[in-house]
Amino acid sequence: MSFVILFFCGLVSYILSNKHFLLMLVSLEVMVLSVYMTMFFYFVQFSSESLLSMIYLSMSVCEGALGLALLVILIRTHGMDMVMVFDSLW
């Protein structure tokens, strides 16, 4: 139950933090971790195989690394992490 609340807090934070790219990435990571913890406790409760949760965790780590790489590229080229800068990228 608390992971659902954590997921929706991350979702609300993602919707409301539309100015900075870093805050959006942190909100996405909160949502990903709440889904992971829900899957982990589900697999522990029903004594099923947890390989799927490990695959999900590795994909979420790759997603986080890709987001941070995009943040670094954005800051190096434009000097800030404001989402309003995305208009000039195209």
From TrEMBL:
Annotated compartments: Membrane
Keyword Flavoprotein: no
Source organism phylogeny: Eukaryota, Metazoa, Ecdysozoa, Arthropoda, Hexapoda
Transmembrane annotation, as ranges: 21-43, 55-75
InterPro entries: NUOK/Mnh_C1-like
Reactions catalysed, as given in the entry: a ubiquinone + NADH + 5 H(+)(in) = a ubiquinol + NAD(+) + 4 H(+)(out)
Similarity section: Belongs to the complex I subunit 4L family.
Superkingdom of origin: Eukaryota
Entries under Pfam families matching the protein: Oxidored_q2 (PF00420)
Bilayer topology term: Multi-pass membrane protein
A single Gene Ontology CC term: membrane
Stated name of the protein: NADH-ubiquinone oxidoreductase chain 4L
Primary localization: membrane
MF GO annotations: NADH dehydrogenase (ubiquinone) activity
Coiled coil ranges: none
Organism, as annotated: Xylosandrus germanus
Swiss-Prot/TrEMBL keywords: Membrane, Mitochondrion, NAD, Translocase, Transmembrane, Transmembrane helix
